Here is the input.
Amino acid sequence: MIPDTTKTKRLEKDIQDIAAFPESEFAGIIREVGFECDCCGKCCTSEYNDHVFLMDEDTLRIVENVGMDYLQPAPYYDFCDNLGRFYVMGYALKSKTNGNCIFYTGNKCEHYDIRPAICRIYPYMLHREEDEHGNAGFRQVSGLGEHGTYHNELEDTACRDILEGVKKYETAFLKQKIMFLDLINNHFKKHGLRHKRQMYDKRMRDFEKGGKIEVYVFYNGEFDKNVISKQIINS
Ligand code: SF4
Ligand code: SF4
Here is the structure.
């Protein structure tokens, strides 16, 4: 089947909802929670985060500063065509063998100045979630109560900066996803390709056994071809 890109309408609506999310409400939540990072480093480990997704701007900054060696196609590829090639909406930072972020030294971020956008806004978010009745809402703080300190006094300017940063990040993420889905749709139509779930599973099994796979990563409006194996992304 052709990838289901009807999702883009939902994503466009999500962008509108983020823009319309009342700033006073979000600022109120930020102030009331009064979160402060205590630099425990858990968000850089596999205990908290499976992988660090990169927006296009992050990828560019990291490549310019430290090269491509720290990047991998973001895990959990979105599509696999009938020829066994995977497609995913962006890069991620590689992980160490223990699952921690490749930039994490054990007590600090080795490349803090060029850290990705998600690390700059964490743990704040405007992440759409539905409750058990199907009513949409937004999560605002990740891992609330599980890290950092709370009920600290935050300056108005700090709350405003957080608010702007989160809205900007979430909007950019959704826009990247829409552009990726549009490109996938055109690419599959143009080349007569189909998304094949069985092929996806088969190629992933090959990959788990050490085989090489082709992954096309959406970056800068195009697909970047990567040929990877477990050995390559763990090196
Ligand atoms: S890039 Fe730096 S701040 Fe972000 S998860 Fe990795 S070590 Fe942590
Ligand atoms: S954001 Fe949270 S998990 Fe990450 S270092 Fe700060 S307190 Fe720890």
Observations:
- The CA atoms of residues 1 and 194 lie 5 Å apart.
- The chain has a mean pLDDT of 93.
